[in-house]
Amino acid sequence: MVSRSYSNLLDLASGDSWTFSREKKRLPRVATVAGVLSELDDDNNNSVSSDAPSSISPERMIIVGNQLPLRVHRSSDGSGDWNFSWDEDSLLLQLKDGIGEDVEVIYVGCLKEQIEMSKQDDVSQTLLENFKCVPAFIPPELFSKFYHGFCKQHLWPLFHYMLPLSPDLGGRFDRSLWQAYLSVNKIFADKVMEVISPDDDFVWVHDYHLMVLPTFLRKRFNRVKLGYFLHSPFPSSEIYRTLPVRDELLRALLNSDLIGFHTFDYARHFLSCCSRMLGISYQSKRGYIGLEYYGRTVSIKILPVGIHSGQIQSVLNLPETQAKVAELRDQFKDQSVMLGVDDMDIFKGISLKLLAMEHWLLNHREKRGKVVLVQIANPARGRGRDVQEVQSETHATVRRINEAFGLPGYKPVVLIDRPLQFYERIAYYVIAESCLVTAVRDGMNLIPYEYIICRQGNEKLDEILGLDPSAAKDSMLVVSEFIGCSPSLSGAIRVNPWNIEAVSEAMESALSVSTAEKQLRHEKHYRYVSTHDVAYWARSFLQDLERACRDHVRRRCWGIGFGLGFRVIALDPSFRKLSIEHIVSAYKRTKNRAILLDYDGTMMIPDSLSTTANTEAVAVMNNLGRDTNNVVYLVSGKDRKTLTSWFSSCERLGIAAEHGYFVRPNQDAEWETCVPVPDFDWMQIAEPVMKLYTETTDGSAIETKESALVWNYQYADPDFGSCQAKELLDHLESVLANEPVSVKSGQFIVEVKPQGVNKGLVAERLLAARQHNDMLPDFVLCIGDDRSDEDMFEVIMNARTGPSLSPVAEVFACTVGQKPSKAKYYLDDTSEILRMLQGLA
């Protein structure tokens, strides 16, 4: 598989290219110098795409994470060389089990140690050849700003619901840290560029360290098959909206094809942010959730990650594990062990758990000496004063509890704050009767899953613990409702960790529940955890990624926008920008022209508050109307009184008001109706219903027209307004079921109007009139900007093969902006529309 990318633009300029194949090749190192790059500083801003079809079944997967799944240590021979081995605990390595042996996997990420500049080439070559890993070497100062700065000071606290209300709480937003974040993401993009074959490879990006990477990759390769999974929580919109670069991160994620979250809550918060901040709403179809983003469908995946149960079972079989279990059995003889395993950070709720234990001991003094809480405190991944405060508080609380409730030879709380070998931690799981996770916020937390697998044990461990191998196993879980794994553990006791009394009661319940109940809960959990492992998670994600990328080959793609505003437009292959020269040429050589023009959003900026007509638009209409070879119609949703006033100077202009219900061919003619309506009694039914919803929905309003009623909620809360609109739609459809009206929802509106009224009627009426007069149009121009104009586009596009147009007619259906449409042409905005019409006039 040959890479179609270049490691350096200088290579491209000189014609010296290099290729990456599965044979052993020396991998050129992309220069990474200290400093920062602005979000516009992107050398490779020419998008690369291909129209060649490709197989959707992947042959190669590029997995990108902050850290490579490798262990790194110096050689013991004193040579200063580096030795590498697989990190079996790394999720990125474990997920290979779900990808398939026929798929080649390449990893891109950082190493856990800083490698000297002089050895980076050799290390790159070694890792590529022996591990299929591509290291991203980040200068220490830049990495510190990126990881300890932006990731750990800004993103990680915010995603865990901690706002920087003071300099002590994470610190104020620092633009230089954001620039460092962009720079590192761009270095990662360069590394992916070195190995990617864009038409064939799938790319899977992991976690909040690389949230803008999708934009850099999509900018280089418009059709890149790209998935992203967020392993942390995604906060509610009220929290997320405080981030100064909120829009940039959302748009960057939307350059993925598939975005994965652990829980529906996290996905719901992300979708709410897209709706409230970008105005992009989601749709659910046949069980799949998707966002329409400039013609592309960005799919949403909700699936919690699993564990590698095979790895845990292999550790359970180790002699050292069995020896440790025997040691712990003797150490905690005749005692019930409750276990906590947490990182030493502010969100893991260790102090809350200890306070609950203290409360339990106060209320159950008779059980002193019989129950012990073992708290394993893993070293914190971050650093700073908050970590030191957690450590100090934890040690002080443990000391206070043990002094108050301890007995000779008995400590109610055993704190282990040294790094443990994996087999040691496994041994604690085996002997613990219950496991407590009281994190105040955690993306997933796999501790309960590991505990369940370990409690299942094996025959040798049963023998050590004196258990009957044929007997059902048991376990108990007390888990915080604020962690990602909580929804999948339906047999666990869920608690609010902030409620000390409730956690204390849950501890008592876990200790006192019957053995049969423990066995039933364990069986339920074990069945789920053993089937929904990391391989299942990876396999499911890849299947959805393949489905999300299935239409890539059939769509025309091109990129627009600068910096992090970059996005890819994906549209029908026949959809293209209208050439001014082309339409002017067609206009000049034709003699019988029909022109249909929308107003709002086409001749005037959308949502304009202006109470008068656009003077440029009026002048253009006048000039076009003066040509006797032209029949010009303005087709608008506005009422006829407003349109008559605004365009009173346009004597030969035809006007269709209220989406075509009222039509007037010129200023001297009388208004006619396109659809016969016997009466409007239905308004007396619909209007009170709309008023009810207007009173209860702040920011909404009713627009009363002669032929229609429109409920507008553009200025209401988007979530509440959308919810109310659905209720109103159902309510109106119910009360108007026997009336000759249609009830439809649109963008921020619910409209009731007579059946059959649409802008397509105006186009049909115009073409029929020209045919009746034996004046078949040989030039048709129709311009609009929203869904209501699609009816006009459909009519004139279908007319090309009918009798109402000249056989040699030039037909131009044009929409405003690049978006999916029945029109075959587009112009970018209203100013381009006006310039084009001025060119015709």
Automatic annotation (TrEMBL):
Name assigned to this protein: Uncharacterized protein
Organism: Pistacia atlantica
